[in-house]
Amino acid sequence: xxxxxxxxxxxxxxxxxxxxxxxxxxxxxxxxxxxxxxxxxxxxxxxxxxxxxxxxxxxxxxxxxxxxxxxxxxxxxxxxxxxxxxxxxxxxxxxxxxxxxxxxxxxxxxxxxxxxxxxxxxxxxxxxxxxxxxxxxxxxxxxxxxxxxxxxxxxxxxxxxxxxxxxxxxxxxxxxxxxxxxxxxxxxxxxxxxxxxxxxxxxxxxxxxxxxxxxxxxxxxxxxxxxxxxxxxxxxxxxxxxxxxxxxxxxxxxxxxxxxxxxxxxxxxxxxxxxxxxxxxxxxxxxxxxxxxxxxxxxxxxxxxxxxxxxxxxxxxxxxxxxxxxxxxxxxxxxxxxxxxxxxxxxxxxxxxxxxxxxxxxxxxxxxxxxxxxxxxxxxxxxxxxxxxxxxxxxxxxxxxxxxxxxxxxxxxxxxxxxxxxxxxxxxxxxxxxxxxxxxxxxxxxxxxxxxxxxxxxxxxxxxxxxxxxxxxxxxxxxxxxxxxxxxxxxxxxxxxxxxxxxxxxxxxxxxxxxxxxxxxxxxxxxxxxxxxxxxxxxxxxxxxxxxxxxxxxxxxxxxxxxxxxxxxxxxxxxxxxx
Length: 579
Ligand code: ARG
Prior knowledge:
By secondary structure, this protein is of the alpha/beta class. The protein is built from 21 helices and 13 strands. Arginine binds near residues 126 and 128. Arginine (ARG) binds near residues 126 and 320. It is found in: Cytoplasm.
């Protein structure tokens, strides 16, 4: 609907320009918002206020001319001027009902991508394999997963890339320790944290061990067969830990999506040689660097992007440069989204700029760093265990599920244990994910079990429960969502409000996809659940005054149920039919 309104306004602007009312050549971004108060219509635009100055007119006068120049459209019932010069658009309820009918008849709920379908690479999760996944890896994993699902639903070809850290200096230390324990069984290794700590202790205590560790990194990176064998064994175990966490979280990542830093090893020398051939490298204290005019430090001195250390070693940036061209040349990406901590913003700005300068990627390939803030503890400080250690992600998920189990059991003591466990998993894991996804991606947030497990407010339990209410309404009648006959007609205020929200699903998903911000989908579903509640309270369904009204209301409920279910699924939450 917003797109339609934007197009109507655009046509009016073109017409006014050709009539000389507006200067030629204006190309403003036309903003159209949902109104808060429905007595002011359904959508509003501030275009007349934006263009009043260049047009040399008062905003309200321009607004009047715009209304006169707007083409007729079935979906718009009327347009009014409000306040200082807003244009308020009132949706035509018959046209709105018609749109909902189309959504009901479509397994994609009438959702289409606003622009052309693209091949999109999603760089997500990417833990370092030397240690176990900790809470710091949660955000990249689940935000990336949600955006990937939305893009897929909109019709993009999505390629997930798990750029795991499997090649750093820490591996020398781990290999040296593995060599000392030739009998080290998989079981011993499966406690990765303990293994890492023991290796680190040796490293700090013995300089002979530390030297050997350094030698081993060099040997490994040079392709030594023994080193590679140990390294593969270690990584296989570490990756199987990651996979267990992914499965538990219900994110769509598999071993096939792993393309770690090591995968680019053979190309790193070429990256440096190509940068050199393009004249982009400068030597600084023996290291090879790319200097770009737009990157300066606080004192105004040029900042280097280092691609090779004085000793010959390559860096994180070198690997990322190699990855940009792999994603372009081999994966044929149109767009690459990097879900990585906000603190790496400068790294990505520099890598993207250098990749473009070097011609590693075509100008048409979009690269966007989808940075995110930190997950803090309830005290607002970085999330830690009681003794100050990092919290393992798996421990956090276990606790969430246990707490959900206790809560659900207290509410429904009659449920059998198997069902309780199943509900606890959906609610507990869903709560952790939803609490994270519902915050704006770039802000920090405080992790709080009590709040995220509450059945009130913008939480997973509230939404999962809202969905079960719709599901049970249908179960009681022995119907499913696709079986309701009849037509939607929108009479009551609550029906209109619910319908208008349902019609915003496509716009919402397109915004999530464009900006990589799943919180928009969370607020949308929360609003939808709220509007459904007031509809349900005010517009009797089973006791409706006549058959046609009952069917219309059931159809609205069916579309609400399907939209909630689809929306939660796109966020990566498991829905329940009852709880
Ligand atoms: N392993 C890195 C870290 O833990 C994240 C990698 C993100 N992706 C990338 N292409 N650099 O910080």
